[in-house]
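Supplementary Methods S3. Complex input for the zinc ion-bound model.
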Amino acid sequence: MALPEAFMQDLKSRSDIVDIISSYVNLKRRGKNMVGLCPFHNEKSPSFNVYTENGSFYCFGCGAGGDVITFIRKIENLDYIEAVKLLAQRAGLQVPEQGVDDSMSRLRQRVLEINRESARFFHASLLKPEGKPGLDYFARRRLPMQMIRHFGLGWAPESRFALVNHLRAKGYAESELIQANVAVQTRSGRAMDRFHSRVMFPIIDLRGNVVAFGGRILTDEKPKYINTSDTPVYHKSSGLFAMNFAKNALDNGRLILAEGYMDVISLHKAGFENAIASLGTSLTAEQARVMARYAKEVIICYDSDEAGQKAAQRAIPILRGAGLLVRVMAVPGNKDPDEFINSYGEEGAARFRKLIEDCGSDVEYRLDRLKSGFDLESGDGKVQYLMEAVNVLARLDNAIERDVYVGRLSEELGVDKNAILTQMKRSMRQESRAAQKRQLRETTEALSARRDEINPEKRRHVRVANAEERLIACLFAHNELAASLREKLPPEKFVTGFNRRLYQSLLGKIINGETANAPGISDFSAECTPDEMGRVAAILRESSGTTAEDAERFVQIILSEGGLSDAEAIRASDPAQLQAQFEALRRQKK
Ligand code: ZN
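Predicted complex, serialized as structure tokens:
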């Protein structure tokens, strides 16, 4: 059962798509529409469009699309009813109880409650006699009680059933504990604590919910850290530790990206509340995009050992890809930030601030790293360094940035600037060819993968599936065709499943008058997944300018070729038409 139509109308009229998307994406006007950098994939030139006319968005780069509810679902990682609730709250509306299928929403609510209760339990355990090893550890790291409370740090007791028993007594089922990943299932089928004998770091999302935990063991046992796996409320590829605090403490639009929980906590203690860490995994593009929603610049502050430096090198292109400025800090003397700050006592924070101000850009960092591998005293070494350095610079998008560094290289090595520029142009041509190939491959892969997911039959029936999609687009624009289309081409004649479902649903909405106005994209967001909504948005884009004659033509294609694969359809047609069909196919595939 759906939410009442009147409520949905009210919600839609109060949830302006441009207003809402603007709070996540920087949109600029282009003609009738608004464009911006897509928040769902990394890109440098905007292919993310918002169509005010029909309340939809569509990204040409990754195929994400839909209505305002789909947008909120995707960006906030919510299910349908949760997204409706969030929008309703924003619009000052009460969601009617009637018609809400919220089983998923209830599960998520339970998992959040379990997490909160677990965090309380771990924190209380830390302050009991059994928590002494944990408290001692924090004392060794010079954490005052106030920081322990601020971060809600805790201790997972040694017993393998302490938390499970505690939560069961509070009325939570073992199956819920397993879904929250605070417990795991033993071979006998019982639930057993996931974390034991570990200091516990709760991970809090941007809305203040405890969504996951990291646990560090204090002995030499492996693994040193374990973290919550993906759950209904947590995706580790987008989680960031302490982002809930850091987003409100940006220092000139800057975040400090540290390596571990303790680094972050020490930095916060020293007054750098813009410090965050990625969680247990290497940095992902999703995490970088979350940072880019709040910050302009990220200072990478990883360990100075080889592993830390490798991780920094990997992080640079990911952060740049999300449009962030990047600088890389080297903490002197092989220290981690905590050791560095502590070693200067009172002055520690000021010294660290100076490191932030002085640290170089990611380009300087990469050039320094390169340089250390060559002997610049020898002519050979100089040339090799120069060639490698030019390759680094050729990959920069910004011409001014390139020019600055070419100037520096020329001075540093005593080589003519023009000679370096010539070499760089050559390298840039190579790089641009390689980048084009890469992009083409990525786009094709992304497109074919998506095609499989949403409408798997389309692969074998490209021509018919395209006709189906165009016909649906016509129907969106010409509702008056619905009755006659249902006669001529009942939904069961459709060849591909997704299009059949969409066609049937659209016909139903028009003929039964389910919606007050002509059906639009938002009438599908309750029945389609966010990925499917991308396809609906793509189809809807084709609807303007279509005519009733177009519809007739598409009906004919579907009726005459329905059931045949592309290859069979081509074999069945006469030779004169063959060439034309090849041409049409080639155009469609472009
Ligand atoms: Zn995109």
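DSSP finds 26 helices and 16 strands in the chain. The longest strand covers residues 210-217.
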